[in-house]
Each structure stands twice: as C-alpha cells, then as structure tokens.
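An example makes the point: we print one protein in full, the chain in one-letter code, the fold tokenised, without further comment:
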Amino acid sequence: MDMGTGSGIQAIAAARKREVHEVTAVDINPNAIEEAFKRSKLEGVSGKIEFKVSNLFDGLGCRKFDWIVFNPPYLPSEGTVDETSWVGGEYGCELLLRFLDEASKYLNPDGRILLVYSSLSGMDLAKIRKRYTVTLLEEKPLFFESLYCIMLTPINPSSDLTKIL
C-alpha cells in the first residue's frame, strides 16, 4: 500500500515490479487520487493499482498488506493556513503518530512499513521503538533538515503512540 499516494509515484514504482501483483494507493485528497490514476494509465500500470480516497485507514476495512509505504506530511505547523501536503500537525509528527498507532493492524504477519520523515518533525524514535523495530535505511542531510528513510517492523501493537507528545 502507498499511504498518502499524492502523485502516485511510489504506487507506480511498486506496480512496475514483476513480483508485485497488486498495489493500493490511498490519499485523503480526491484530486490527488484522480491525478495518480491518470499517471498510472500513462505508465501502463493502472490495472495493478486500486485507488482509494481515505483519511489514513478509514476507508480500508480490514485489509492487510505486506508493505505500507508512507511519505507523510511531516513539517511543523507555522500557525497560519497550512498546506496539508506538508504539515503533519502542530509539532510535525501528529499525523505520523496516528498512522503508526493504526498501521500494525493492517500488516500481514511479516509485514513492514517504509517511512520517510524529517528531523524537523519532532519524531522521538526512542518511543517509536517501544512498538516497532526501527531500521535506518538512509539519511539525507539537506541545508535546513535531514530526511530519514526507515523500515519499521511491529513488535508491540498495544502501545498508544499519540500520547507521546
């Protein structure tokens, strides 16, 4: 699954893989879903991707996935009219924490999460490690922040990550 698919780039990349038979692309924005679908048609993989408008997992029922890829909005709010594709809450990590609270319920037993987040998001990996094994795959230092790509494996699905702030 590609959570927060936006332009669909991750869903399309996954659908291009021979060993991938089906991808679910989810976004809260219906316009993003429409554009991602158009792009998937141009790329010739629309038959392998199911597109869903949903606020995180709300519209997915009880489906389970081997992989969930999420590049969430992760910047802290500036207190004005925020762009929802960039802002992850007051501190930057609230949406991500909501996602992580629910995500393990939607993974198959050996399922994993690939996640991108920013050093600006206020993410506390020590608390995430109470519920997931965290493997750093890549770190990209930029001018004003660092981006991290991590793999998460569920270990403690009962803790509530939204209460760590």
Helices lie at 9-16, 30-42, 94-103, 125-128. The longest helix spans residues 30-42. The chain has four helices and nine strands. The chain has a mean pLDDT of 83.
